[in-house]
């Protein structure tokens, strides 16, 4: 007779780990709460990268309330390691950091162009306060792409900001140690 005193209710079928390992799933199986039977690929990937014995040891050493996060981290790292055997999730992090730097440069360029455009529009307005207010109401009619030297055309183009970039990335960055960077 099967013992039904376990932490989380589950179906009578074996968990994905026990199915994969071709063993009987017991009521106190450490894998069962985290590797459901309908997610066989999750355990297969974790097992391929870390091994069932290591995963079991990790889970027994981690407090029970942190096990779900631990399994999610192992699954993410295993997926990343299988996609990129050399860098794993560090490759994904470096890619995101590179994209963040590119977006920061694009934002700085947009702010500089907006400042130039705002300066050219305000310098063309008359000095009187009432005329300035009337001029600001018509600001929406200003052709920003023309007044700003083509705000939309060429935005984000690498040709416009090559002087700000060195071979190792943006000037002053410390991202050279990461793979996939520039």
From TrEMBL:
Q: Its domain of life?
A: Eukaryota
Domain LOB residue range list: 13-114
Cross-referenced Pfam families: LOB (PF03195)
Family from the record: Belongs to the LOB domain-containing protein family.
| Designated name of the protein | LOB domain-containing protein
Species this chain originates from: Linum tenue
């Amino acid at each position: 007779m099967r013992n039904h005193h376990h932490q989380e209710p589950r179906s009578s079928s074996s968990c994905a780990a026990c199915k994969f390992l071709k063993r009987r799933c017991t009521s106190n199986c450490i894998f069962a709460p985290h590797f459901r039977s309908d997610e066989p690929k999750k355990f297969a990937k974790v097992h391929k990268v870390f091994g069932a014995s290591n995963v079991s040891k990790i889970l027994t050493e981690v407090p029970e309330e942190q096990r779900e996060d631990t399994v999610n981290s192992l699954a993410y790292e295993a997926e990343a390691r299988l996609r990129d055997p050399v860098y794993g999730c560090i490759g994904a992090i470096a890619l995101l950091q590179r994209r963040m730097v590119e977006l920061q440069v694009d934002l700085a360029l947009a702010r500089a162009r907006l400042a130039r455009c705002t300066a050219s529009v305000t310098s063309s307005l008359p000095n009187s306060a009432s005329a300035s207010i009337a001029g600001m109401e018509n600001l929406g009619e200003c052709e920003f792409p023309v007044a700003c030297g083509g705000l939309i055309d060429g935005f984000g183009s690498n040709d416009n900001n090559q002087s700000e970039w060195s071979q190792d990335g943006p000037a002053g960055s410390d991202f050279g140690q990461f793979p996939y960077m520039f």
